[in-house]
Amino acid sequence: MFMGEYNHTIDAKGRLIIPAKFRELLGEEFVLTKGLDGCLNIYSYNEWHAFEEKLAKLPLTDKNARTFKRFFVAGAAACELDKQGRILVPQTLREFAGLAKDVVLTGCLDKIEVWSKEKWSENCDYDNMEDVTQAMQEMGIVI
After folding, report:
1. pLDDT in tens, 84-130
2. CA Rg, the chain, in Å?
């Protein structure tokens, strides 16, 4: 599983270094797509296929299901590492996530999240962890 937080930069051509610890788990090829909260997600091919199977089971008659599916699949890009351990992040995905220079890559168990440093800081407001913990307990997550 992916864990940890790494600070990197994305260059003017949109190339981003993937941390060595993450490269070991990702393999040669993987998928980059939009994520929730304004980040990007990187999935290994195995995790992506499992996610695709869940998406394929969503009912076509449900508008929210169609929207959800489009959100993740339409912008998805197959990626492979270059010799320096970098990927090329497509322009549309860079714009979606606001990636300009400083980037934070975080392990999130089954995927990697790619954040602009600014959005990462905004989303790391842990002042309400008591409320979040209560909501998790209601979902059956007990610490």
Report:
1. 999 999 999 999 999 999 999 999 999 999 999 999 998 887 777 88
2. 16
30 with 48: CB under 8 angstroms? yes
**Which run of H or E residues covers position 66?**
helix 63-73
Q: Would you place residue 78 in the very low, low, confident or very high pLDDT band (cuts 50, 70, 90)?
A: very high
Instruction: Name the one residue in this structure whose structure tokens are 């009912």.
Output: 59
Q: Name the DSSP letter for residue 28.
A: S
* Cross-strand partners of 77: 32
Distance CA 34, CA 79 (A): 14
Is residue 53 classed as helix, strand or coil in its secondary structure? helix
Residue 62 contacts residue 56 (beta carbons within 8 Å): no
Whole-model pTM: value is: 0.92
